[in-house]
Write a structure and sequence with these properties.
Blueprint (H helix, E strand, L loop, with lengths): L18 E2 L4 H4 L14 E5 L5 E3 L7 E5 L6 E7 L7 E5 L3 E2 L3 H13 L2 E8 L1 E2 L2 E2 L6 E10 L7 E6 L3 H6 L5 E5 L8 E4 L6 E6 L5 E6 L7 E6 L3 E4 L4 E3 L17 E2 L5 E14 L8 E14 L4 E4 L8 E8 L5 E8 L20 H4 L8 E6 L9 E2 L9 E7 L5 E7 L10 E6 L6 E2 L8 E6 L5 E6 L7 E6 L10 E2 L9 E7 L9 E4 L5 H13 L3 H14 L4 H13 L3 H14 L5 H12 L3 H14 L4 H14 L2 H14 L4 H14 L2 H14 L4 H13 L3 H14 L4 H13 L3 H13 L8 H13 L3
Parallel strand pairs: 3-11, 18-37
Antiparallel strand pairs: 1-6, 2-4, 4-7, 5-6, 5-8, 8-11, 9-10, 12-13, 12-36, 13-14, 15-16, 16-17, 17-19, 20-21, 21-22, 22-23, 24-25, 25-26, 26-27, 28-29, 29-30, 30-31, 32-33, 33-34, 34-35
Helix pairs in contact: 5-6, 6-7, 7-8, 7-9, 8-9, 9-10, 10-11, 11-12, 12-13, 13-14, 13-15, 14-15, 15-16, 15-17, 16-17, 17-18, 18-19
Protein name: Tetratricopeptide (TPR) repeat protein
InterPro entries: 6-blade_b-propeller_TolB-like (IPR011042), TPR-like_helical_dom_sf (IPR011990), TPR_rpt (IPR019734), WD40 (IPR011659), Ycf3 (IPR050498)
Keywords: Repeat, Signal, TPR repeat
């Protein structure tokens, strides 16, 4: 098998047609002087590949050869079928030739019944004339044609290199749709997108399309839409994998997502962390990417529900690359032992600095995956089992894809890691497991992301056989899993871009003309970017974007609620209340307006006004236990203890399993002198949630009030484990120290509390008073 490694021939010279032959077989073979045997190796046909199979509908391909004889300056290209007259003979003066459409069609038709040979002979001119008496070099290969149609276009990305450049200028990435039958450059469906779009997939019927997008700086964002001739990508079509258990604070980047065959579900990697490093000094391999943590979760379009897939949700492993069986009943995925990134909390971006990946970049550490399969079971999952032939082989196995007939799994294998590995090769194994075979389609360098035509007879994949810019190749696969040397889809791509993530779309010709970006400039986009910035504490930039969003969307209450909350955080109390009142005016039946206005009034000390607003919020949403509980806390602060207890009674009726509600009600009862009721609530809270540090602290404080110092100390010790920086912890610890007559320790604790300033919240004044009484006056 001869595979092209050099890139210098990519810019194909125009071929001069010097001679057209129409002679008999004896004229074209026996009539030519053959090159001597020691010259035969001096010419190599680099493309097509020997044994390659072309689809009947494919556009003309360029024949390329390399002549190292040092003598040839003219070449004769002949295409013949054994025992017959030549189909075509062309004399050319460059080391490449592209047949026209009619000639190419004749070659393909001839190769349907049996292989045709492509013979290239090199000669040299004598006195400016072609000398046909002596050939100095020669090579021969054969090709075939299949009448199995490809039948669908290929959607792919075109990305400038290196990766760091594309990441900085995502608008230069193009999203194309190409048909193998078209000889012109493939259609650009979308470009100038000011955010990065990544892994994409579609349902089997081509109607549902999904793509990872970095919408509003949220790496977990994902657009999912029905495909139309002109498909508008609008904010309402955006979901975010970050919404899966957002409350636990663990970042989600949601990479390598996949739409189900029926379009009803999407699966992705969540709670994930990857080694993701830019390597701009290496144009061909300008990034290192592989996930080291993550579980698999599903999203159900009908309900909007996110759910972890049991069996692929073990945090001790990284579980990624999910891929569906054609019936949607089984998922195949890559799995490895999870790796903890050093100082992981320091990195809030998907891309990490080189030094964070030093153990892999220069330290020689490997990371290898096995392919597993698991029942999807409508999102419930099941037992994950390794796929025999694609696991436990000492290699890294990833990117599993199942053939449309469900019989085979094609996966990528490398020595280590995942994306963009120079040594990566494609293998095929029975879907039930067995012996894996290395595929004939593999080129000399990097064979990766692959996708099957709807009929399952063709597979497109990415390769760097021709240099740093990844190109798309196509191989034929029969029902027994036998594949052929691939053909280059040269007409789909441009020379200055890497073509990657190819996916067949099962759509009718010309049914899709444009993907239209309608979410990157609207007010909602600025609002989403601002919310993401707020998570990282970038308050001023967030405020600037919220101002812009308010200008674009003056009737969006969410914008004013978010900006009001930010103004409140920045101590812009008047501006905060103005925004909350604006939100109420826009959406008078939305409880969030009066609720946030009540919080703002409480912050400035207007407790009666705050209670009035919170009452309105409860009126608008009487079944929301959080609002009712907040009103209870406000009533406690005003001194309406009975009303506070009644509010928490109601909240607990709505949410009887809430440890937090029991804890808060217990504190109110303690303050009211109902210690028996308080201890019951604290005990219940701790039973429901043993790691609830505030419950241990509140019970410790209650024990102090009853002079039960030993029990208070025990609860304080437990609280330190769960919430070491809680303000009440300092107060109790100081009181315990003074009771133990350890005056120095008590004052030291209060000194530490004083240094925290406003972080002590409502205990700040109490700490100051205790310090003055116990430490200053006693000095």
């Amino acid at each position: 098998m001869r595979l092209l490694k050099t890139t210098s021939i990519l810019c194909f010279a125009a071929v001069s047609l010097l001679l057209v032959w129409s002679c008999s077989k004896s004229d074209s073979t026996n009539g030519q002087t053959e090159a001597s045997s020691d010259q035969l190796g001096k010419l190599t046909i680099e493309y097509p590949l020997d044994g390659a199979m072309f689809p009947l509908e494919v556009a003309p391909s360029t024949f390329i050869w390399k002549d190292d004889s040092g003598e040839a300056d003219t070449w004769l290209v002949r295409v013949v079928r054994e025992g017959e007259a030549p189909i075509v003979e062309k004399q050319v003066s460059e080391q490449s030739w592209k047949p026209n459409t009619d000639v190419w069609q004749a070659i393909k038709v001839a190769a349907l019944e049996k292989p045709v040979s492509i013979i290239v002979q090199g000669g040299h001119r004598v006195d400016g004339e072609h000398n046909h008496d002596s050939w100095v070099s020669s090579d021969e290969i054969s090709i075939r044609t299949s009448d199995d149609p490809v039948g669908a276009p290929i959607f792919f990305r075109e990305v400038p290199l290196p990766f760091d450049y594309a990441n900085k200028y995502p608008e230069k990435i193009r999203y194309r749709l190409g048909y193998v039958s078209e000889s012109h450059e493939s259609r650009v469906l979308m470009d100038n997108l000011p955010l990065c779009g990544n892994c994409h997939s579609a349902s089997d019927d081509g109607r549902t399309f999904g793509m990872d997008v970095d919408y509003a700086n949220d790496k977990g964002s994902y657009v999912i839409t029905d495909l139309e001739k002109h498909t508008d990508l609008t904010p309402d079509k955006i979901i975010t994998w970050s919404d899966y258990k957002r409350e636990d604070g663990t970042l989600t980047f949601g990479l390598l997502s996949r739409v189900s065959p029926d379009g009803d579900h999407v699966v992705s990697t969540v709670k994930d962390r990857s080694i993701f490093v830019g390597l701009p000094e290496n144009l061909a391999y300008s990034q290192l990417f592989f996930p080291i943590q993550g579980i698999i979760a599903s999203y159900r379009r009908e309900t909007g529900e996110f759910k972890a897939l049991s069996g692929a949700d073990n945090p001790e492993y990284v579980q990624s690359n999910p891929s569906w069986s054609p019936d949607g009943e089984t998922l195949f995925f890559a799995r490895s032992r999870a790796h903890q990134l050093k100082n992981a909390d320091d990195y809030t971006s998907a891309i990490i600095p080189k030094e964070a990946a030093a153990e892999f970049l220069s330290g020689g550490k490997k990371f290898k995956y096995d392919i597993y399969k698991i029942p999807f079971n409508n999102g419930e999952g099941g037992e994950a089992v390794p796929l025999e032939g694609a696991s436990n082989n000492g290699k890294s196995n990833y990117f599993p894809k199942v053939t449309p007939d469900g019989k085979w799994v094609v996966f990528t294998q490398a020595e280590s890691f995942m994306l963009l590995q120079p040594d990566s090769r494609l293998y095929i194994v029975p879907a039930e497991g067995g012996v894996a075979r290395e595929m004939n389609a593999n080129t000399v360098e990097m064979n990766s992301w692959h996708s099957f035509s709807p009929n399952g007879r063709w597979m497109v994949f990415s390769s760097k056989a021709r240099g740093p810019y990844t190109q798309l190749w196509l191989t034929h696969i029969d029902e027994d899993g036998n594949d052929t040397p691939p053909v280059l889809l040269e007409h789909l791509m441009t020379e200055d871009r890497a073509a990657n993530i190819p996916e067949f779309l099962n759509v009718e010709p010309d049914s899709i003309e444009k993907l239209v970006d309608q979410f990157s400039e609207g007010g909602n986009y600025h609002y989403r970017v601002a919310k993401n910035l707020l998570r990282y504490g970038e308050l001023e930039d967030a405020l600037r974007l919220l101002d812009k969003a308010a200008e674009i969307q003056p009737d969006n209450p969410d914008v004013f609620l978010e900006r009001g909350a930010l103004h409140s955080q920045l101590n812009n109390d008047d501006l905060a209340m103005r925004d909350f009142k604006k939100a109420i005016a826009i959406a008078p039946t939305d409880f969030r307006g009066p609720f946030n206005l009540g919080l703002a009034k409480e912050f400035i000390g207007d407790l009666d006004g705050a209670l009035e607003s919170i009452n309105k919020a409860v009126e608008l949403n009487p079944m929301n236990f959080n609002i009712i509980a907040k009103r209870g806390l406000l009533q406690q602060k005003i001194g309406k203890v009975q009303g506070a207890v009644e509010d928490f009674d109601k909240a607990l009726e709505l949410n009887p399993k809430s440890a937090d509600l029991f804890n808060l009600r217990g504190d109110i009862k303690r303050e009211a002198g109902d210690f028996e009721g308080a201890f019951r609530d604290f005990d219940k809270a701790i039973a429901l949630k043993p790691d609830l540090g505030s419950a241990w602290l509140n019970r410790s404080f209650a024990y102090l009030s009853q002079n039960e110092w030993k029990k208070a100390r025990n609860d304080l010790d437990e609280a330190r484990v769960h919430t070491p920086e809680a303000p009440l912890r300092y107060v109790i610890e100081a009181l315990v120290a003074f009771n133990d007559r350890d005056h120095e320790k008590g004052c030291s604790v209060l000194e530490a509390a004083k240094s925290k300033g406003r972080a002590m919240g409502g205990y700040q004044n109490q700490v100051e008073h205790m310090f003055q009484q116990a430490c200053i006056s006693q000095a």
